[in-house]
Amino acid sequence: MIYISGLRGVAMAAAQVQPRFLISITDPGTPAPSLPEIAPARHLKLMFHDLDAPLCGYTAPQREDIEQIIAFAAGWDCQSPLLVHCHAGARRSMATAVILQVLSTAGQERDVTRLLRTRAPHAHPNPWMIMLADVLLARNGRLIAAVEAMGPATKVVGEGPLVHLWLAP
Prior knowledge:
Protein-Tyrosine Phosphatase, Chain A; 14% strand; five-stranded mixed sheet; single chain; 6 helices; 5 strands
């Protein structure tokens, strides 16, 4: 099970779902929350701004960030709960959830994004992260097209609620 939350909701989400793995995506200069029950090797901490494309003076998601997500997923047993968060729980964390979902699927990108839209009407996966993942996973534009087909978020929130997704078969 993959859970997605915003930064302020991490402690409450952790108490509720008791994750064994955590991916924190924060802005540079914003420390990732520390959860004593999560071993450091099971906590991936990434720092970059929520940008749709590189912008001078800001830190955009990089290929290496997506590679770290993919490598981290390889160490996840897919049985233990994994919690992903960013600042609002709507863009960077949602892109990460999509990436985690499509790692084990081929040709099911649309199914993954349809499930995400159903579970999270506020989701707006970061397009730059999705583009990088599409290239790294050799999806030839299918991942980008699937996220674009989701359409815009149908609900705007300051911080999204806790969302859970089952790992795609």
